[in-house]
TrEMBL record:
Organism name: Machaerirhynchus nigripectus
GO molecular function: long-chain fatty acid transmembrane transporter activity; long-chain fatty acid-CoA ligase activity
PANTHER family, sorted: LONG-CHAIN FATTY ACID TRANSPORT PROTEIN (PTHR43107), LONG-CHAIN FATTY ACID TRANSPORT PROTEIN 2 (PTHR43107:SF4)
GO biological process, one term: long-chain fatty acid import into cell
Record's protein name: Long-chain-fatty-acid--CoA ligase
Reaction(s) catalysed (UniProt annotation): a very long-chain fatty acid + ATP + CoA = a very long-chain fatty acyl-CoA + AMP + diphosphate; tetracosanoate + ATP + CoA = tetracosanoyl-CoA + AMP + diphosphate
Amino acid sequence: ELREAVEEVLPDLERDGVRVFYLSSASPTPGVEALLPAVEAAPDEPLPARHRAGVTASSKAMYIYTSGTTGLPKAAVITELKLMMVASLGRICGLRPDDVVYTTLPLYHSAGLLVGVGGCLEVGATCVLRAKFSASQFWADCRRYNVSVIQYVGELMRYLCNTPKRADDREHGVRMALGNGMRAEVWKEFLQRFGPVAVWEFYGATEGNAGFINYTG
């Protein structure tokens, strides 16, 4: 879905020596490689240590574009240390290796990538990804994939509360919700309708250096 945007800036990226990949089996764009065949052909053994010999806690792991809390959107540097610190949030909140985490959040944001996927990598949990959030299919997905932990951000929980009530609203295995931006009245309504789910509400910013967790509920 971002093909046009990629092709628009591709000449500049190529001039700067940046390699671009599509996570697909084939690439419709000359100069952009398809990554999926290489992923599927990769061996199961751990990477040789020499590939990470020069990596330190202060090494750049990735860039994440923020929404611009101080002006226009900008790339925030995520170091290896910050990646590990944010990924450990799930463990702090009680995420376990036998959990199945369901996230519908975009992976170009910190919540979906670092907390959701990163948290699963941190503890060895299973991650269920959905390309787009669907309020009507949310709980059906949770039942289908035996989900035990859900991720939310902003008004996602309100959208769930606004769906028509169903007899099976409490028929799920979700024990914990991890996210940020839920209003107090939505929190109460969510628990009354969908059952005793432990809510771990946190606050953080991609370019920030501190965070908060409401661990008492």
